Description:
This protein is an alpha+beta fold. It has 2 domains: 36-136; 145-308, Rod shape-determining protein MreC, domain 1 (Thrombin, subunit H). It has helices at residues 2-11, 24-53, 59-133; strands at 145-154, 163-166, 179-181, 186-193, 198-202, 210-214, 220-225, 232-235, 248-251, 268-276, 285-290, 299-305. It has a 6-stranded antiparallel beta barrel. A 6-stranded antiparallel barrel has the order 6-7-8-11-10-9. It starts with a helix and ends in an 8-residue tail after the last strand.
Amino acid sequence: MPRNRSTGAALDPSVPRPRPQPFPFRTRSALKRRAVVGTLIVLSLVLITISFREPTSGALHGVEAAGATALRPFEVAAERVARPFQDAYGYVRGLVNAKSENNTLRAELDQERQVAIQNQSAQQQVQQLKRLLHYVDSPQFPADYAAVNTRVIARQPSEFEQQVQIAAGSDKGISINTPVITQDGLVGRVTQVTGDAAQVTLITDAESAVPARDLRTGAIGLVRHGEGQGQMILDRVGKAQDVRDGDVIVTEGTEAREFPSLYPRGIAIGRVLSVGQTDTSVYKEIQIQPYVDFNGLDSVTALVVRHKAGGRR
């Protein structure tokens, strides 16, 4: 009977049980780890402080140098082991980038090819229509012109005289109003000519006015000399016309009575630097940067019209 009572008491849930106690060796191990981490942190801060305050010839820097020297072989070995993998990664990445760029360039090339085909087709249609309509046009640049390449032999003596002398004249087919260009763009026209020389008046001259157009939008205006030295403007462009910074300006090639053009159509003149307008002005205020460096003229090309059948030039 006593044995049964003790068993019932042990199984009775109302009897309080003692809480399990943590193992003493685990507590001591955690304290030791925390103490070691704290000691290492304090030691690192002390070493960093000493390293910053100590001169470069100090003992601690010497230990650092010795340690770096001792670890250098391991660093070199690690670099040699990792280099093939780095090279392989760089090769793969470069190959992926090259393929992406190649696809982009191929797409751009295909687009430009389509545009070129369309332009060529349109040009053929235009030529065919001109033949059918017996269309009479002015000389086309550059097909209807012969190039006379010559040297500039005399420059303008001052900024107020915008003329140069070239070493070719009427003996090469050059005449009054012969256009003169460089590979960069329009220079001017011949205003005086002799047998072996000619005077060229630059488009920067105050009396010069070149009918021109915006290559992007077709806006028409007059290229004139600006107020500052070397500056030019595109004048007579209405406010409703679309002209923007960076647009390319070329010769218009018109034969209007008010402003007759002495230059063939499509010769580059310059690009638009700025576009502005005021409420009181009828026209836009457009500044142009010429493509030609007029201060560095050395060689130019005179455009002599080729003679065609029927006597038309």
